[in-house]
Fold this protein.
Amino acid sequence: KAGVTQTPRYLIKTRGQQVTLSCSPISGHRSVSWYQQTPGQGLQFLFEYFSETQRNKGNFPGRFSGRQFSNSRSEMNVSTLELGDSALYLCASSVDRPNTGELFFGEGSRLTVL
Amino acid sequence: GENVEQHPSTLSVQEGDSAVIKCTYSDSASNYFPWYKQELGKGPQLIIDIRSNVGEKKDQRIAVTLNKTAKHFSLHITETQPEDSAVYFCAPWGGTELTFGQGTILTVHP
């Protein structure tokens, strides 16, 4: 059974640009959650999608957005990049709500903003 | 929102010793308490979890204990091995999302 796949694994952008990250969940999983991981702030919740609908959203500015497709694949977008957006972005999938079963994480997309 | 504090931030033990990491949360409605292990270059992986109707759960060398009255739960690792070296996170569920603690860097010396 394939795990959670995130692409790209590494990317470098400059301030003001935008970036799109992709996440393919485990087959059969309908919930996809996104987290930002930085050394200073740890793991912070961005948003969760379930059946193409945003179910929950963390405390991030509107520059951070996401969506989920009918096949449960998800993308997140960050517009007008700032230096502070440099982080590891982790995607996780679960069958339903993350507390109803194991939450499986991908290996992340490491974004560097110069 | 949920406030989570995890201690200690770093923990160094000799192989074979026990390790204990404590997580304190604020939301009395929290009802799901997982622990995740993150190895270098990888995403977090669930290692054990407990629900609010249970006080303790064991899985081989790993155990989790929950004190709902005091609002804290702890990860216990016995007979530690070098491969246990990693960052460990608690992540109580407050009803909408998992809120991760700041992490504990565990180093097991051979």
